[in-house]
Write a structure and sequence with these properties.
The complex is a heterodimer of chains A (174) and B (218).
Chain A (H helix, E strand, L loop, with lengths): L7 H24 L4 H21 L7 H25 L5 E2 L4 E3 L6 E3 L1 H31 L3 H16 L4 H7 L1
Helix pairs in contact in A: 1-2, 4-5
Chain B lengths: L18 H36 L1 H9 L3 H26 L3 H31 L20 H34 L9 H25 L3
Classes of the chains: A mainly alpha (174), B mainly alpha (218).
């Protein structure tokens, strides 16, 4: 607005700098730097991006708040990338602090195998106790009307009740 | 002055206190839109980051199946179009309508060249069966690792969405060119050209990153 216009010459100089940087990226690609290849490519691209944003997009003369909006979006894109890779890149790693493996599927802590097994065993025994208690209650409720019938039913139900009611069918299907 | 008569200032919206306020509002809206664009593309870059770190060798092989010379040509074309877009804004600010027109046409031509080159690249990939995901069916590239298809998935989504932005840019710049020829822009009012150029620079910005990340993997 109030500022003086950038001269055509300056725009052309910046464009030439962008061309030089492009040539540099291609040159680096031919050299084979291994793991540094990505770092150098991104650094050069960021230098080019900075030239475009500051000179072509007039960021230097832009209202501070508008610059904040744009740079803020870059910050959040960075957070998005960093946090996601910090998760996905740690799958199957042993987390020393938690003494656990990072679950490859979910990224949650998968605690030591022994602990996992004992946790599973605890859960199963708790479920078995609960089932037994329910059976007892059923037996008690049934005992009131006809004693003989209930005993028969109770004996009959014992085996299927250990699995889910449809457990046998599902197993044979799979 | 002639330019301050109501008819001449038809671009001035009555709900703004001043032309300066109207311009600031437009600029804030545009930068918010560009921020949204950055976040929109960030999803593609994050997917790229995850897949590249998981399958570095597949990405290297996939990258070598692309023609970096065509990608480099498109980089130069797009950088040049950014220059002409910036010069279009400059000439409209100093009231040189004819120069503005010329720079807008140059920008449109560059954008079209970009898409034509892209068309040749795409058709070469299609004919070799180098397609994304489940459509991946390479005919004569030898034995390729499984995840080369993931590289091409990301390649086609990233360049496809970017190409769509180029296409929209062409449409908008044609609109600007027509309006400019109708004499709608002046040093007082050239906001649409300014905003269009900002959009175009962002499209250029995305390509500045896509070029080395897709074409130049060691």
């Amino acid at each position: 607005m109030a500022h003086e216009e950038v001269s055509v010459r300056n725009y052309v100089v910046v464009f030439s700098a962008l061309l030089v940087l492009t040539a540099l990226t291609v040159a680096v690609y031919q050299v084979h730097l291994g793991a540094w290849n990505l770092v150098v490519a991104v650094v050069i691209a960021t230098m080019k991006a900075a030239l475009v944003v500051v000179v072509f997009m007039h960021m230097a003369h832009e209202a501070r708040f508008n610059a904040l909006v744009f740079l803020g979006s870059l910050l959040f894109a960075g957070i998005f990338l960093a946090y996601t890779l910090n998760d996905t890149e740690r799958r199957m790693e042993v987390d020393e602090y938690h003494g656990a493996l990072v679950d490859p599927e979910t990224g949650d802590w998968a605690y030591g195998v022994a602990e996992q097994l004992s946790a599973i065993a605890d859960r199963e025994s708790a479920a078995r106790q609960e089932e037994a208690r329910e059976d007892d209650l059923e037996a008690l409720e049934g005992a009131a009307p006809v004693a003989g019938e209930v005993e028969e039913e109770g004996a009959h139900d014992e085996r299927p009740d250990e699995d889910e009611p449809d457990g046998d069918d599902a197993d044979s299907e799979t | 002055m002639e330019s301050s008569s109501p008819k001449e200032r038809s671009w001035f919206q009555h709900h703004f206190a001043s032309p300066g306020q109207q311009l600031s509002a437009a600029k804030l809206g545009m930068w918010l839109f560009l921020a949204q664009e950055v976040l929109f593309f960030s999803g593609i870059f994050v997917a790229y980051g995850i897949y590249r770190t998981h399958h570095p060798e597949a990405f290297s092989i996939g990258s070598h199946l692309l023609d970096w010379k065509l990608g480099g040509l498109n980089t130069v074309v797009l950088l040049f179009s950014s220059l002409t877009a910036a010069l279009a804004v400059r000439s409209s600010r100093i009231g040189d309508t004819r120069a503005t027109s010329r720079y807008l046409v140059l920008t449109i031509i560059c954008a079209c060249i970009f898409l034509v080159v892209k068309y040749f690249e795409y058709s070469a990939k299609f004919s070799h069966g180098l397609l994304p995901g489940k459509f991946f069916d390479p005919h004569d590239a030898g034995d390729l690792p499984y995840h080369v298809r993931s590289f091409f998935g990301i390649y086609f989504v990233a360049t496809g969405v970017h190409g769509l932005h180029v296409l929209i840019g062409i449409g908008y710049f044609i609109f600007l060119w027509v309006r400019n020829n109708q004499g709608r822009f002046s040093p007082e009012y050239n906001t649409p050209i300014d905003m269009g150029a900002l959009y175009w620079h962002l499209v250029d910005l995305i390509w500045i990153y896509l070029f080395p990340l897709l074409y130049l993997i060691d």
